């Protein structure tokens, strides 16, 4: 087998590894219970599976332009996948679509508590300063 | 080599069917948008598979475009979903804290 044949075979095997990652993500998406765990399964083919597939394409086509284009694609995906993952998980947390019983630590809830205490609302800032607005509670 | 590519194609088709099922059945919109992200990843893998099989690079700009805009749908839906409930919950929590401080 020539060297080019070996490179072609490696390229095809890498693409198959990427397809295996996609299948694993699909199975996780079907079987996991809530949105955050499904997202945990879904982000694997989006970054590492994509890296494997594009490495396979680069090994098969073997030219510098293709390699640069694929590097750009991987960089773009790494930059954008973080943004979408952050926003989707934050949205899942805030709308309560996750299983809080399985969580070990919940730092976002603690931060939100602290923020709600630290930032004064307009009526909270005016209420104690004015003094006479709230009706006095009877003893 | 052809066998390897055929196996990859089968894996991708099965994965796409499973993801499509979750996209139809998923109880919340977040599940659906996560499924849509995975579907974009599967389409990217399919375009890569075509490039390996046909040995040309005409599919690579498509791949680059998908990598570029694949996240916008998730961002839009996430912001749409989170804003009203978040505002409402923070408002309720502030009210509760104020009430407990006043008493």
A few lines on this structure:
The complex is a heterodimer of chains A (139) and B (103). Chain A contains 5 helices and no strands.
Describe this structure as you would to a colleague.
The complex is a heterodimer of chains A (139) and B (103). Chain A has five helices and no strands. Chain A has helices at 3-31, 35-61, 64-94, 107-118, 122-130. Chain A starts with a helix and ends in a 9-residue tail after the last helix. Chain B starts with a helix and ends with a helix. Chain B has 103 residues and is mainly α. Chain B folds into two domains: 1-70, no CATH class; 71-103. In chain B, helix 1 packs antiparallel against helix 2, helix 2 packs antiparallel against helix 3 and helix 2 (29-54) runs antiparallel to helix 4. Chains A and B meet through helix 1, helix 2, helix 3 and helix 4 of A and helix 1, helix 2, helix 3 and helix 4 of B.
Helix content of chain A: over 70%
Unreliable runs of chain A, pLDDT <50, ≥5 residues? Answer: 127-135
Count the E strands of chain A: 0
Structural category of chain A: mainly alpha
Low-pLDDT stretches of chain B are none
Question: What portion of residues of chain A belong to β-strands?
Answer: under 5%
Q: What's the average pLDDT of chain B?
A: 84
């Amino acid at each position: 087998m020539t060297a080019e044949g070996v490179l072609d075979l490696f390229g095809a095997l890498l693409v198959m590894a990427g397809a295996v990652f996609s299948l694993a993500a699909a199975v996780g998406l079907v079987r996991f219970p809530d949105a955050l765990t499904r997202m945990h399964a879904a982000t694997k083919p989006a970054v590492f599976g994509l890296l494997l597939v594009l490495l396979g394409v680069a090994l098969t086509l073997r030219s510098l332009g293709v390699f640069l284009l694929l590097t750009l694609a991987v960089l773009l995906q790494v930059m954008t996948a973080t943004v979408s993952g952050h926003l989707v998980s934050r949205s899942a947390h805030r709308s309560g679509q996750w299983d809080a019983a399985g969580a070990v630590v919940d730092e976002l809830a603690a931060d939100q508590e602290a923020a709600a205490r630290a930032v004064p609302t307009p009526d909270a800032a005016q209420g104690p300063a004015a003094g006479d607005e709230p009706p006095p509670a009877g003893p | 080599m052809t066998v390897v590519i055929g196996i990859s194609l089968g894996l991708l088709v099965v994965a796409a069917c499973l993801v499509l099922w979750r996209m139809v059945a998923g109880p919340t919109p977040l599940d659906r948008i996560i499924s849509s992200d995975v579907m974009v990843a599967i389409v990217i893998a399919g375009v890569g598979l075509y490039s390996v099989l046909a040995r040309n690079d005409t599919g690579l700009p498509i791949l680059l475009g998908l990598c570029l805009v694949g996240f916008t749908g998730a961002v839009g839906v996430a912001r749409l979903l989170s804003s009203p409930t978040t505002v409402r919950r923070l408002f309720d929590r502030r009210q509760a804290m104020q009430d407990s401080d006043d008493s």
